[in-house]
């Protein structure tokens, strides 16, 4: 007879629901990396397809990307703006990421004529390019300015681990009206607000889904600790001093040369003066030149990328050393590599080798071969959709 204790444990594991999280995508397409991170954490992921989905959400994440004006216009056009305001005003669990944080403000210098959601009493400002390179792109630290369970930190100096930023606009720490919201700050030319929290409303300027294990821990804590009981958490609390200014961190970048072997499989290889084939010495010692063997195979791209991530790499680079001779939109093995890597690697992914406009043979609706022109932007977009938060070179 089946042990009743084992049976109950089995039922609990089989029927207990995972945490349900709803992701708001207004059409910018920057959701794959976040969705992969949430699924990696064991969350059930739903999507906003209509305004009522916002109202029904248990926990809502808004991973904004692009320009402030375009984002707000899209929210209004889709009928999402007012339900989003109502959701936030009810202090329900909300996490805004990057532009998803900026849209909470009253407005932005990027689009002065466009109103934001008006949740934060601040205006988003362009970072000073006379002091630092803009955009602010790379790994930087956080100074925790209020005690919080959301972000892991060292209690001795209130500094946290590094996180990944990509932005040109920010909420500057020069407005006393936002003191009740400020959770963490970062230094880059000036001190800006890198995380906010008030009750169950949370937002970060950085990308937790691309900030490695530290970022995954932040997402996990949001899922687990919200909703908090006190509606006015952190309100009226003075900011803790930021003793150590943050700075851009050195990056550990794992770079892999990727190409097809003789069987057509993508492999990680390494060449000597661009020769990636094994050198086979002949049986006769008098033979002057070694024979060229198979393509040198150091492993599978996805497996190696995952290993590098687990060992602490801050970025993973795939260099297609065939220089994309075939149309990348139909180079399915490489696209699949990016899809699979984005499910297991939660740091920025870079595709190297050059992306350019291409004329390629494709099949039309009737199955006939025709020549179609793909712009460099279309090619880059295909790779962006495959792995999300991917960087690439366009030539």
Folded structure, characterized:
With 395 residues, the protein is of the alpha/beta class. It is 25% helix and 29% strand. It contains ten helices and 22 strands. It has helices at residues 4-15, 32-40, 51-56, 68-77, 81-89, 99-102, 212-225, 301-310, 332-342, 376-387; strands spanning 20-23, 44-47, 60-64, 94-98, 105-108, 120-126, 136-140, 143-144, 163-167, 169-172, 182-188, 190-198, 201-204, 253-260, 266-269, 277-280, 291-295, 315-320, 349-355, 358-363, 369-374, 390-394. Strands 1, 2, 3, 4, 5, 6, 8, 10, 11, 12 and 13 form an eleven-stranded mixed β-sheet that branches. The chain has a five-stranded mixed β-sheet with strand order 15-14-18-19-22. A two-stranded antiparallel sheet has the order 7-9. Strand 14 (253-260) and strand 15 form a beta hairpin. Mean pLDDT is 83; it is low at 1-16 and 389-395.
Topology:
Blueprint: H1 4-15, E1 20-23, H2 32-40, E2 44-47, H3 51-56, E3 60-64, H4 68-77, H5 81-89, E4 94-98, H6 99-102, E5 105-108, E6 120-126, E7 136-140, E8 143-144, E9 163-167, E10 169-172, E11 182-188, E12 190-198, E13 201-204, H7 212-225, E14 253-260, E15 266-269, E16 277-280, E17 291-295, H8 301-310, E18 315-320, H9 332-342, E19 349-355, E20 358-363, E21 369-374, H10 376-387, E22 390-394
Parallel strand pairs: 1-2, 1-3, 3-4, 4-13, 5-6, 14-18, 18-19, 19-22
Antiparallel strand pairs: 6-10, 7-9, 8-11, 10-12, 11-12, 12-13, 14-15, 16-17, 20-21
Helix pairs in contact: 8-9, 9-10
């Amino acid at each position: 007879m089946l042990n009743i204790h084992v049976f109950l444990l089995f039922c609990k594991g089989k029927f207990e629901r995972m945490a349900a999280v709803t992701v708001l995508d207004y059409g910018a397409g920057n959701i794959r990396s976040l969705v992969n991170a949430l699924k990696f954490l064991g969350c059930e992921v739903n999507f906003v397809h209509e305004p009522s989905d916002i109202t029904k959400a248990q926990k809502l994440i808004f991973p904004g990307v692009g320009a402030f004006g375009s984002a707000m216009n899209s929210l209004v056009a889709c009928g999402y703006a007012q339900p989003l305001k109502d959701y936030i005003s009810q202090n329900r669990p909300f996490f805004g990421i990057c532009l998803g944080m900026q849209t909470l403000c009253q407005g932005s210098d990027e689009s002065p004529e466009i109103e934001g959601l008006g949740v934060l009493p601040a205006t988003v400002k362009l970072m000073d390019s006379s002091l630092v390179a803009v955009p602010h792109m790379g790994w930087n630290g956080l100074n925790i300015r209020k005690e919080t369970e959301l972000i892991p930190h060292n209690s001795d100096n209130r500094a946290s681990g590094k996180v990944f930023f990509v932005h040109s606009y920010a909420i500057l720490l020069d407005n006393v009206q936002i003191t009740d919201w400020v959770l963490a700050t970062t230094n880059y030319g000036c001190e800006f607000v890198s995380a906010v929290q008030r009750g169950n409303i949370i937002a970060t300027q950085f990308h937790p889904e691309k900030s490695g294990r530290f970022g995954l821990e932040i997402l996990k804590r949001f899922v687990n600790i919200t909703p908090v009981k006190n509606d006015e958490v952190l309100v009226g609390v003075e900011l803790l001093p930021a003793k150590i200014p943050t700075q851009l961190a050195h990056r550990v970048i794992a770079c892999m040369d990727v190409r097809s072997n003789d069987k057509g499989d993508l492999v990680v290889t390494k060449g000597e003066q661009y020769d990636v084939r094994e050198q086979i010495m002949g049986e006769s010692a008098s033979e002057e030149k070694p024979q060229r063997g198979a393509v040198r195979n150091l492993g599978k791209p996805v497996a190696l990328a995952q290993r590098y991530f687990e060992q602490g790499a801050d970025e993973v680079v795939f260099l297609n050393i065939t220089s994309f001779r075939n149309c990348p939109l139909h180079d399915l093995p490489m696209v699949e590599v990016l899809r699979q890597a984005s499910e297991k690697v939660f740091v920025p992914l870079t595709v190297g080798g050059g992306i350019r406009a291409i004329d390629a043979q494709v099949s039309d609706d009737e199955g006939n071969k025709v020549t179609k022109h793909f712009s460099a932007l279309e090619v880059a977009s295909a790779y962006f959709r495959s792995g999300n938060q991917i960087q690439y070179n366009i030539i």
